[in-house]
Amino acid sequence: MSSSLSERFKKAVGIGSGSLSVGEVVGATASSDAPASNPSVNWDELKSYRYDALNDMSKDIRLMTILPDEAQFPIRVSLEHVTLERVDKRPWNEGIFSLKQIRDTLPSGWEIREAFAEKYIFTSARANSWTHPSTGFPKSSYIAVRPPREPHYEALSYTWGEPGESKQIIVERVDTRSSSKPIVRQYKIEIRKNLYEALLELRDEKEPRTMWVDAICINQDDIEERNEQVLRMGDIFQWASRVVIWLGPESGDSELAMRSVAYIGKQIVACTDYWQMNSPDATERGWGFIQTKIPYSDSTWTAIEVLLRRPWFERLWVAQEAVLADATSIIKCGSSEMLITDFRAAVQKMGLTVHTPRVLRAIAMNISLVFRINKAQPLNLLLLRTSRKYCTDRRDRIYAVLGIAQKGLVDSIIPDYSINHIRVFRQATLAEINYSKKLDVLEHCHWADHRGQTPTWVPRLSGPLACGSIFPFHFASGYSAAMVHVEQYNKHHQLIVEGIECATVDVTGDPNHMSTDNMVDISKYCKKWVARVRSPELLNDVKFFNYLIRVLCLDEEDGRTTNVGYPQLDEWKRFFVRDKLSTETAQADNLVGAHNWQYDGYCKWAGRAIFLSEDNIIGVASMGTQPGDIVAVLLGHPSPVILRPVNDGTYKLVGDAFVPELSDANALLGPLPYPWIVQCYVREGINFSIPHFVNIETGKSSVLDPRLPPLEDWEIVEDESDLSVWTTGGYSFRNKKTGEKTHHDPRMRFDALKNRGVNVRQFRLI
């Protein structure tokens, strides 16, 4: 279908026959027999291009074909309408075994991991391989081959750039209505400079190139079409033959930077569970290890930093475009290019290794967080990963990530550019809560971000979070569900939530504004706070002391979060405190697993402050927390929250908190009995940790809380739906009588907790 117009153009203008003449070129005021490829164009004589309406905006898209020509000639394109059906499943993945299925077939000593771009890699102590170690094992069981698909096109990912200098290109349209001889009519369209430079680089001298480019393929003046096409972005980039990421023209040492980054990436395989290893095709055999230093010169590292500071990496819309790009997709800077898989592996390596120059390491880590996003993620995680990305329209904070959000959520958010951003944020917040029955999205609400025109429970989403994210390991409300409703009072929207009040804040420390990711500095910050505590003898209390250490590392220790490589809790104690927070100098490099935590942990500490409650409960909370604020656990929220009482019985949401004493639903159900603990396992395929109850004597794990009575009318069943995978790691609770299915433990509902004597109640958030 997509080739039909291109074929007509070939026939009309004689492409392939040695001639570039056309039957007739019709301008604004006259028509004449003239070559389409004319290096000198009188733009004043060309009419502006007027879009034909799409027949069905929910199915049809436009594709642009860049017509071939030499570099000195104006850019000419053609547009056509094609049908792109929405398909939720990738048919070429059918028949591919899961990780578990393949793992069961592996010989002793072999393991399997999932690399990005839907590839499996087989690993052992001696070698890594793209092929199954058992001779004769069918490759069709683990290697997906994508068949050709119509319409065939590439999707361009680029930044629009700031309004200013614009360029003009020619849009050609074949008209066969008035003559048996095709007539090519020319029109003009204005585009911004960055896109113009991209088209110059992408144009071929001999062959047409069919692409989807948003600025040209969407009628930007048609709000209704924009609303509808925004919903198609995920389909458009997912079904493209490949994505071409345009960073801009070559400048300075960009060619050196591109070549150097690509070389790093070819040595490494980046996996979806944060692991990286040597590529089976590597020539530098040790570069896959995080600790290995890459021997680049200072000038090379500087060139790479300049490259990674290009505007493309700062823009919001390109995040979903990068995530949806397949393994054949490329990144271009001028004429230099590299595979997106090589780039993804390289930025992960540069972001994780402590030997990368400090500033570049932070830049690479931020870029890697976006490139590590999996498809069909919860909205709160997408907002977190993209919070540092820039967009000109605040509404795009939501709309720009719909292509990689969970389908059930996307179906309930309809892009509408006729309403303001505050309403968009409120609608999206409620849509996420009602869909997931979780309050995770409230982690984006911080007092320091709040402005008076919005409720405190609606994220402002105006840029980077004022506080680092401490989500998701704390499991404060267990597998409970958030059952909320909204009431309007005095023109204000009140969110009614359920939970339990746990403590009152008494003492707070200064917010952490450190500009370093050095863990030694975090330790010094905490020592300074300890000196202000009204009862220093608390440090002699073993229980309190352990809670303090858990606060310092935000519970990210190997006994709590498995398969990530964090230090053990005892190692944290030795590193951070050395004789109960002494002044002895600690060396981060000597802490096993520190490189996995250092930058990540610093980001979570940023903008937060330690607090102590009236009954000596210690925690770390959002900047802006004050004495008199209350600490509460809300059903469906993984972390405790700080609430500020208002005289009329309502509350303002200050932000979330980490309080180790309130982890694992302790505030709702009491402490776990021996021999049970909670551990968080990285769920294969989603790069996310799911809490499980583990019996340390038997080693068995379950999502069933041992503190609760038997399920009776309910049973637990496997469920690989998007929502279940992200909530309980692939399980659902099903009512044996009614068939009702939920992703939350029915024994943790409000009424059930009330019947157990738990003092849960409602809170009105304003």
TrEMBL record:
Pfam families documented for this protein: HET (PF06985), Het-6_barrel (PF26639)
Q: What is this protein's name? A: Heterokaryon incompatibility domain-containing protein
- PANTHER family linked to this entry: ANKYRIN REPEAT DOMAIN-CONTAINING PROTEIN 39 HOMOLOG-RELATED, HETEROKARYON INCOMPATIBILITY DOMAIN-CONTAINING PROTEIN
Q: Which residues form the signal peptide?
A: none
| Source species of the chain | Verruconis gallopava
Domain of life from the UniProt record: Eukaryota
Report domain Heterokaryon incompatibility positions: 153-321
